[in-house]
Amino acid sequence: MDTHPLLTIILPTFNAAAVLQGCLESLVAKDESWLEILLMDGGSKDDTLAIASSFADRLPRLRVVSEPDEGIYDAMNKGMELATGDWLYFIGADDRWTDADRILELLRKTPTSVDILQINARKGENETYTRSMSQGRMLAGEEFNHQTIFYRRIFVGSLRFSRDYPLAADQLFNMELVVNQDARVAHAPEILIHYANTGLSAQQKDMRWIADKDSWIAKMFPPDEVARRKKWRPRERWVKRIVRILAGGKTSRIAVHWLQDQLYRRAKGSGTRQQPVI
């Protein structure tokens, strides 16, 4: 098959037989020539590899690499070395696309000026994830789910996930791209991924990342903006508590996000170059 793939999906697995079938089913599209899938397996002992093999006809560009690794980000880094698509995307075995054909359409429509494309997601049973990345939101400490993000491979270049943070390396990866490399971000406000929120990073906290996060923000942002963040953080915590009590539920989240955008809005001429909504 000579057609150059538009997208490379990197799917790290380890004993994922219980959930992998549904994930791979969701990736089947009318035209599979655009999609390269790299299943980076850590040496599963269950039926993970057999399930992957069963999709050989439906996902002809599915490639399985099974060997010991040193965690999910090691597997993702190995996948990036093998990727040939114009875009990169990372998915968990318990995640599900809602419409592979629509994702293809969006990627084909995305202007070459865009470095990162974001979509909306359904988190767990009810919560909708709609946040678009910006430097101001990263200054506020906001974090972003990799299931909602497509990265242009040429823009990512040689950047890889840090092995220092076993559960949150994607947060530093995003910060490097959006802040240090000034990524141009576009947002398609459609729910096109369901993620179960049952992965290891959802169940445990990366304490090393929590300890280091403020120091990374201090390294990447100008001193005056870091000082402004230190000024507003204590006040923000109290205001967020009041908003949550008064508003509650989804309204609370919207209000808190609005508050963060106001407090951490970057000066004109700085910050992420937002592209038009797709």
Describe this structure in words.
- This protein has 278 residues and is of the alpha/beta class.
- The chain has 2 domains: 7-221, Spore Coat Polysaccharide Biosynthesis Protein SpsA, Chain A; 222-266, no CATH class.
- 42% of the residues lie in helices and 20% in strands.
- The chain is built from 11 helices and 10 strands.
- The protein has helices at 17-26, 48-53, 72-82, 100-109, 135-139, 153-156, 169-180, 200-203, 207-220, 223-247, 249-263; strands at 7-13, 35-41, 62-66, 87-90, 95-97, 116-123, 127-129, 149-152, 184-195, 273-274.
- Strands 1, 2, 3, 4, 5, 6, 7, 8, 9 and 10 form a 10-stranded mixed β-sheet that branches.
- Helix 7 (169-180) runs parallel beside helix 9 (207-220) and helix 10 runs antiparallel to helix 11.
- The longest helix is centred in the C-terminal third of the chain and has 25 residues, at 223-247.
- The radius of gyration is 19 Å and the shape is globular.
- The two termini are 30 Å apart.
Spell out the key features of this protein.
single chain; 278 residues; alpha/beta; Spore Coat Polysaccharide Biosynthesis Protein SpsA, Chain A; 2 domains; ten-stranded mixed sheet
List how many beta strands DSSP finds: 10
Query: How much helix is in the residues?
Result: 40-55%
- Provide the gyration radius in Å: 19 Å
Indicate the CATH topology of the largest domain. Answer: Spore Coat Polysaccharide Biosynthesis Protein SpsA, Chain A
Please provide the ordered H/E string of secondary-structure elements. EHEHEHEEHEEHEHHEHHHHE
What is the annotated CATH architecture of the largest domain? Alpha-Beta Complex
* Percent range for β-strand residues: 15-25%
Q: Number of helical runs? A: 11
Query: What structural class do helix, strand and pairing data support?
Result: alpha/beta
The major sheet is characterized as: 10 strands, mixed
CATH class placement of the largest domain: Alpha Beta
Average pLDDT, all residues = 88
> How would you describe the shape?
globular
Total domain count = 2
Distance between the termini: 30 Å
Runs with pLDDT <50, length 5+? Answer: none
Q: In the CATH hierarchy, what is the superfamily of the largest domain?
A: Spore Coat Polysaccharide Biosynthesis Protein SpsA, Chain A
